[in-house]
Amino acid sequence: MLLKTFGWSFGVTAAGFALAALLWGWQGFAVVAILSVLEISLSFDNAVVNAGVLKKLNAFWQRIFLTIGILIAVFGMRLVFPVVIVAISAKIGPIEAVDLALADPDKYQQLVTDAHPAIAAFGGMFLLMIFLDFIFEEREYKWLAWLERPLAKLGKVDMLSVCIALIVLLVSAMTFAVEAHQHGGAHADKSATVLMSGVAGLITYLIVGGLSSHFENRLEEEEEREHEAEEEAKKEGKDPSLVGIAGKAAFFMFLYLEVLDASFSFDGVIGAFAITNHIFWMALGLGIGAMYVRSLTVYLVRQGTLDDYVYLEHGAHYAIGALAAILLVTIKYEINEVITGLIGVALIAASFWSSVRRNQRVAQSNESGGEKDEASDEEVSSKA
C-alpha cells in the first residue's frame, strides 16, 4: 500500500537527488533536500485539506485531480511561478531569466540579490497573513493553549490580521529606508519598492482567499441542490446517480481544490526564497516536495486517518509564521539558509510529537473509563 502510493515520489526523489549531486555537488544536494522537506512540511495542511475534499469525489474526478491537477501544481506553481517572480522583480523576461541563469549565473545571482527586498516583502506579507488568520481563529484543539486561547479572542476584531500585517510592513519599509539613509541613500528608492511589494503580497493573499471562499460557497450550493435533486429522483422512482447536477458539483469541487492547492503552494514557493535564490535548486526541491504532497493526499484519503495527529496543522502554520518573520528580517539582515530550513522541520517535528503524546494520553484516559473535556485537552496540549 505504502509503496504503491509513494512509488512515483520515491522514484522522483532518487532521480532528483542524484541530479543535484551530479550538477551542483553536496551544497546543491543539501539545499534541494532542505527545500523538499520544507515543501512537504509547509504543505502537510494542504494535503489534509485536499484529502478532506478529494474523498467526496468519485474515482474519475480523483484521477483528474491527480493527473491534470499535478501538472498545474508541480509544473505551473512550483516550476513556472518562481521564474515569473524573479522575472518581474528583476524586470526581465521569463525566457531571458532562464537564459541568464544558464549563461551567466553570477549576473543572474546579482539580479536576484538586488530584487531580494521586493521578493522578501511580497512573500513575507503573504505568509504573515496565512499565519495571522490561523492563530486568530477559534479552534477545537489548541497546541500552545496559553498563547492560542487569548489570540483567538483577539481574532474576533474585524480586519485585525490586515492591520497587524500593514503595521509590520510599514516598520520594515521604514527600517530599510533609515538604513539606506545612514549609508548615503544608495538604496533609498527601494524602501518604496519594499512597501509596494508588501502591499502586492497582501492583495494577492486577499484575492486568493476570496476565490477560495467563492468556490467553497458555490460548492455548498451545488451540494445542496444535488441532495434535493437526489431526493426528488427517489420520490419519482428514478436512479439518483443519473441526476446531472452531480457533474456540476464535482466540477466546482475540482475548481475549488485547484484554487486551494494554488493558494497553499504560494507559501512553499515564497518560503523557498528565504533559503536560496538559485532557481534550479528551488524548482527541483519544490517539485520533489510537491510529489510527496500529492501522494500524501491519496494516502490520507485511502487510509482515512486525517484526524490522528491534531497538532500537525498548528506546527505547519507556526513554520509559516517563522518563515514570514525570516523573510521580513532578511530585507535588512542575512540569515543562514540551513537555520531557515531547519526551523520549519523542528516545528513540524514538535507538533507531531505533541500529537503522539496527546493520543497516548487519550488512549490511557479511555482505558481507565475517564471522559476528557476541552479543558483537559488544552492542558495536555500545553504540557506536550
Describe the structure.
- This is DUF475 domain-containing protein.
- Residues 374-384 have a biased composition (Acidic residues).
- It holds the Pfam family DUF475.
- The chain crosses the membrane at residues 7-26, 32-53, 65-90, 115-136, 157-178, 190-208, 241-257, 269-294, 315-333, 339-356.
- Residues 362-384 are annotated as: Disordered.
- The structure is a single chain.
- The longest helix has 47 residues, at 189-235.
- This protein has one domain.
- With 384 residues, the protein is mainly α.
- Helix content is 83%, strand content 0%.
- The radius of gyration is 23 Å and the shape is globular.
- The protein has helices at residues 2-42, 44-54, 59-90, 94-103, 105-135, 145-154, 160-182, 189-235, 245-272, 279-303, 312-329, 337-367, 374-383.
- The relative contact order is 0.18.
- The two termini are 31 Å apart.
- The protein contains 13 helices and no strands.
- Helix 1 crosses helix 10 (279-303), helix 2 (44-54) packs across helix 10 and helix 3 (59-90) packs parallel to helix 9 (245-272).
Q: What percentage of amino acids are in beta strands?
A: under 5%
Strand/helix succession: HHHHHHHHHHHHH
Question: Which structural category do the helix and sheet elements fall into?
Answer: mainly alpha
- Cα Rg: 23 Å
Mean pLDDT level: 76
Outline, from the CA principal axes?
globular
How many domains in all?
1
Helicity range: over 70%
Protein name: DUF475 domain-containing protein
Keywords: Coiled coil, Membrane, Transmembrane, Transmembrane helix
Pfam family, one: DUF475
